[in-house]
Structures are given as structure tokens and as C-alpha cells.
Amino acid sequence: MKHVCLIALLSAAALAPSASASADDFSLGYDVDRFPATQLSVKACHAALARGAAAVGYVTRSQNDQGTLATHVSGPAGGGRALVSYCLSAGDHTAFVIQAFDYSGPDSRATDQVKARVASEVRKAASGR
């Protein structure tokens, strides 16, 4: 039951902001995935989020690791964009949610590029590369 609730929570977290994204004032890109905890711990996921954000030139604004939930918030030094990411312990899995915002307007490709780069860093950590 916990597993089903967590998947529902992850889905809601990823989809809820997309309803607001049609407001014509910003763009949103997001990615959600999960891996066996033996492949990716919350701590390793959190470190990968930070590496991915740094790789696209984002500065860490806030981060918190409570063991079963880690958050990482960052954006470029000049502002105008934001990256909000989560790593969650879900039973025998670790899940991540990455949300990339661009406040320059709708249909920005930058959100997809940022979330793809950060997600690739987490997937790389899960694969052991």
C-alpha cells in the first residue's frame, strides 16, 4: 500500500504544476523515475542532482537531506529559471522528481535541456558509471 501511495504522490507532484504551466507566463519540464535502492540511495541521488545542476551552471539555493527525502533547489546566478528536485525513499526503491522552470515565457526548450541533463546525472549514478 505504501508503494502505491508513493507512486500516486510522485505522479501528483509531477503533474500538478503542469496544469499551471499553461498560464503563458513560464515553461515547465519534469522527469520522474525510480530505481532499486540497491542501485541508487537517496544520498547518491541527492549528490547526482547537485552535480547535474552544477553541470548546467546552476547555483545551489537550498538543499536538505532527511535520509528518506532529499530536496535540491537551484538556478542560474542571473535568475529567470529554477530547478526543484526531490529524491525519495520508496520502500525498496529510490525515486526522483525533477522540475525545471523557465520564467521567460511558455514553450521554452531550456526546461527540457536542463531536466534532461540533471536526470541523466541521476541515471548515471544509478547505473554505477
UniProtKB/TrEMBL annotation:
Signal peptide stretch: 1-23
Keywords in alphabetical order: Signal
A Pfam family it matches: DUF6180
Record protein name field: DUF6180 family protein
Species of the source: Luteimonas fraxinea
